[in-house]
Design goal:
Layout (H helix, E strand, L loop, with lengths): L1 H10 L11 E3 L4 E3 L4 H7 L7 E3 L22 E3 L4 E3 L1 H5 L7 E3 H110 L3 H5 L5 H5 L12 E6 L3 E6 L2 E6 L18 E12 L7 E6 L2 E5 L3 E6 L4 E6 L9 E3 L5 E5 L4 E6 L2 E7 L4 E8 L5 E7 L5 E7 L2 E6 L16 E5 L5 E5 L4 E5 L5 E5 L16 E2 L5 E5 L4 E5 L5 E5 L7 E6 L5 E5 L4 E8 L1
Antiparallel strand pairs: 1-2, 1-3, 4-5, 4-6, 7-8, 8-9, 10-33, 11-12, 12-13, 13-14, 15-16, 16-17, 17-18, 19-20, 20-21, 21-22, 23-24, 24-25, 25-26, 27-28, 28-29, 29-30, 31-32, 32-33
Length: 551
């Protein structure tokens, strides 16, 4: 207590000077030092003073001084005049007036102030809580509207992607129809020219016979007119028409042959139907080789058809484009240390390749290499597939090849990862060999897993549909799948490297045919062109065989 008292005395100074207080006047409610006690009493001679030590002070009301009588305090209140009064006022100018003790008035007013203070405190508490609530609502509203803006931007991008998909498909279909149309006409033209070439010698020989006087020349003449009368007919192929319809603000539609796409204001077509040839095709009873393309590429591993009877092939850092006659059309030097893990082409015909050491997928534009995708840390890109929608599928492995996963990229964004089945088990087996990947017409992701010696097919959601690992009917070695493709009819074609053949499956994994009559020694690369022909790269013979297997 002594310490607390001394601290209080240090904090409070005398009313008349700056010294520390020791005494207190209870009547006047002022603190005084020893030197100022007399000054205080003399200044208010007419008033009673109760001087006590500061520690024994009594806190009480301090009445105001009377404005009419010096040295008097107003301890009452005149009700009639509504002013405070002293004892002299009551016997003077306020004589006979009704008055009330100031103590009672102050007590009543204190109670009223206390009540109002409690009410104000309640209002402050309520408004504070409402302020906090309002602040929260402001934050929530701002977040909500920012989310709406983000969703709007995302939807804008998504709508643009859908429109791009429509017209990418349209351009792809037009290219397919064009190639199909021109190929048929060129084939007819080739037959006409070949027939003309074979008839000209006969025509000239006949003219010589007519001029000859030798009986034997005329007598030995054999007519070829019947053969030549069978002139190849020029097919009257219908040219497709493009039809569009625009209802402003309601519907957009475009139609080419059997393919139609529609955008409405209420819903956006998902366009899940893939572009395919307008006429169905059937498998030939026996596949046939229509071209043998020399490449001079040692240990030929990858083939990627690029259009116009040309394909990219590679074995080292150099990627070479050759046509169907074996003529080099272009070369690209990759940024890889040794060899790209895979090559393929986009829907626009641009070359892309994977660089596992840099963890990148690169694209070649106007002869220059650009980084298209950088894979996540710890994952190295292996095999590639450009889908009909413009997405890119990449099979990746962890360092050491202990784990494989297929990533789907839309631009530079990963939209799906496929690595585990519904039971949490790995879909693809780890190991030293790659996992090839391709997308089928129905949206299935088809992979050839050489480590597991199986073809594994999952649906759009990543759920395993089936596995295929049978060797061919006459196969002696275990099934060894390599680079895999699908065609316009949804067939799955996979090379069996050790049995030197191709397996053809339907989209449900049913074995249909084995192509084993085309001299396929260690088939490694595989691609399919716009006519449905297979371009098969042979590892040892440095050649690409173009094979027709559908009619």
């Amino acid at each position: 207590m002594a310490t607390a008292t001394s601290q209080a005395q240090e904090l409070i100074t005398c009313e008349l000077c700056a010294k520390h207080i020791q005494q207190f006047c209870n009547n006047c409610q002022v603190g005084l030092c020893e030197d100022c006690i007399n000054k205080h009493v003399k200044s208010l001679k007419s008033m009673k003073h109760d001087i006590v030590p500061f520690t024994k002070r009594t806190v009480q009301l301090v009445f105001p001084q009377c404005t009419s009588h010096s040295h008097q305090r107003c301890e009452a209140h005149c009700q009639q005049c509504d002013v405070p009064v002293c004892i002299k006022c009551l016997t003077g100018q306020h004589k006979g007036h009704v008055f009330e003790d100031m103590d009672k008035i102050i007590a009543m007013k204190r109670e009223k102030i206390k009540q109002e203070t409690g009410q104000v405190e309640g209002i402050i508490l309520k408004t504070t809580m409402q302020d906090v609530d309002t602040e929260n609502k402001i934050s929530q509203s701002m977040a909500h509207y920012e989310d709406l803006k983000k969703k709007t931007r995302d939807n804008r991008n998504q709508w643009h992607l859908e429109v791009d998909k429509i017209f990418n498909k349209m351009e792809s279909l037009i290219q397919s129809l064009r190639d199909h149309h021109i190929t048929i006409l060129q084939l007819c033209q080739s037959k006409l020219r070949n027939q003309n070439s074979s008839m000209i010698p006969t025509f000239q020989k006949n003219k010589e016979i007519l001029k000859s006087n030798k009986v034997s020349d005329v007598n030995n003449y054999q007519s070829k007119l019947r053969k030549y009368r069978n002139i190849p007919q020029i097919p009257d192929l219908p040219l497709p028409s493009l039809h569009t319809n625009t209802v402003q603000g309601r519907e957009l539609s475009i139609e080419l042959g059997e393919y139609k796409a529609t955008l409405t204001q209420k819903s956006l077509s998902s366009l899940t139907d893939e572009v395919s040839f307008l006429t169905a095709k059937e498998l030939l009873e026996e596949a046939k080789v229509i071209a043998n393309i020399p490449t001079n590429v040692k240990k030929l591993q990858r083939v990627a058809y690029v259009g116009s009877d040309k394909a990219w092939v590679n074995e080292n850092k150099i990627i070479t484009c050759v046509d169907i006659y074996g003529v080099v059309q272009d070369t690209v030097t990759s940024t890889c240390r040794k060899v790209p893990n895979d090559i393929t082409v986009t829907r626009e015909g641009e070359l892309i390749y994977s660089n596992y050491s840099h963890r990148t997928v690169n694209i070649v534009r106007d002869g220059k290499t650009e980084t298209l995708i950088t894979t996540p840390r710890g994952w190295r890109p292996e095999r590639l597939c450009c889908t009909r929608s413009g997405d890119i599928l990449i099979s990746m492995y962890t360092t050491g090849g202990s784990h494989y996963k297929i990533f789907r990229y839309q631009g530079q964004k990963v939209t799906r990862e496929i690595d585990k089945d519904e039971h949490g088990n790995p879909i693809y087996q780890g190991g030293k060999d790659p996992v090839f990947v391709v997308e089928n017409n129905n949206g299935d992701i088809v992979a050839s897993d050489l480590n597991a010696r199986a073809v594994v097919v999952v649906d759009r959601t990543g759920k395993v549909r089936f596995r295929y690992n049978d060797k061919p009917p006459d196969g002696k070695e275990l099934f060894a799948p390599g680079q895999i493709v699908t065609d316009s009819m949804g067939h799955i074609i996979v090379p069996d490297q050790f049995n030197n053949c191709l397996h053809i499956l339907d989209q449900n994994g049913q074995f249909l045919r084995c192509v084993d009559n085309c001299g396929l020694g260690l088939p490694s690369g595989l691609s399919v062109d716009s006519e449905g022909r297979l371009w098969v790269g042979l590892y040892n013979s440095r050649e690409v065989k173009v094979i027709e297997y559908m009619k």
